Structure to design on (294 residues):
């Protein structure tokens, strides 16, 4: 393979579960040019670590031609025909996109559903590569965490949906307990939608609001532990080899929890309200007692 094109949309977590598949491609064809069309912000993770050679925005107008019944523009078709392999995870319910690639003589075209149907999610995005003799995997580490600050704990009280968030009053109680019982230093990671949590938790630690990914990775790798939900930030912490405790409610950990031994999941039912403070404390205590000063 000389040139490979990967079509993959979604947010940060959706991209991170695609990393094992990209790593398989890179190991099998180390000299190939691997291009991805998708979320350029998230995909920079793979470009800077050498898994991708270039990243293109899925919002560029030229890609919309793949979803029309008209023949592709000549120059666009010629560009696509230079790829030896196209791996598609974009929605294609009526196979319009697939038909365009079948009309091109050069590429091998492999496709699977945009939403995972096999757990864990990372294995789903590796599965099409079996056709090329590659063995699916489900784990990939962006980097091994350096020696962390044993007092520093990162927490992300948000996610992409309020239904996936632990109640804010319990985060406040947890932060107070970590500070009082373990003298923990807390890194409070928040995003654009986490304004109330950012305000409520700011007094307990160092705020880290809406950091660029490179800065966020640098902060995470300094941490002894990460606490969060089913979110892209949790996948990022796991990929940075940070031991993590993740709180799950309506989503399935078998599908969406990072499949790694340094990840612990707490789930008590479909609602995060069912997870008590003591549930979290009981999981954290043995992890913290060996590293944090009482």
């Amino acid at each position: 393979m000389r040139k490979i094109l990967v079509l993959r949309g979604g947010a940060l977590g959706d991209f991170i579960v695609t990393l094992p598949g990209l790593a398989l491609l890179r190991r099998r064809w180390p000299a190939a040019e691997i291009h991805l069309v998708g979320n350029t912000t998230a995909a920079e993770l793979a470009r800077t670590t050498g898994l991708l050679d270039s990243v293109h925005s899925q919002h560029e107008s030229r890609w919309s031609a793949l979803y029309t019944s008209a023949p592709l523009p000549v120059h666009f078709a010629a560009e696509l025909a230079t790829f030896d392999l196209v791996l598609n995870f974009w929605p294609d319910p009526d196979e319009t996109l697939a038909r365009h690639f079948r009309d091109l003589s050069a590429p091998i075209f492999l496709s699977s559903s945009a939403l995972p149907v096999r757990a864990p999610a990372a294995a789903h995005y590796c599965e099409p590569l079996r056709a090329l003799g590659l063995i699916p995997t489900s784990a990939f580490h962006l980097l091994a965490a350096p020696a962390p600050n044993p007092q520093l704990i990162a927490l992300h009280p948000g996610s992409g949906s309020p239904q996936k968030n632990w109640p804010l009053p319990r985060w406040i109680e947890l932060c107070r307990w970590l500070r009082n019982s373990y003298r923990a230093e807390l890194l409070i990671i928040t995003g654009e939608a986490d304004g109330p949590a950012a305000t409520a938790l700011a007094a307990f630690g160092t705020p880290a609001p809406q950091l660029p990914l490179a800065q966020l990775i640098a902060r995470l790798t300094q941490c002894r532990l990460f606490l969060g939900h089913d979110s892209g930030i949790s996948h990022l912490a796991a990929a940075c080899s940070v031991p993590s405790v993740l709180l799950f409610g309506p989503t399935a950990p078998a599908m969406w929890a990072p499949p790694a031994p340094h990840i612990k999941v707490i789930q008590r039912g479909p609602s995060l309200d069912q997870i008590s403070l003591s549930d979290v404390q009981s999981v954290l205590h043995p992890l913290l007692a060996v590293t944090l000063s009482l």
About this structure: The chain has two domains: 3-132, 149-289. The chain has a mean pLDDT of 93. Residues 168-182 form the longest helix (15 residues).
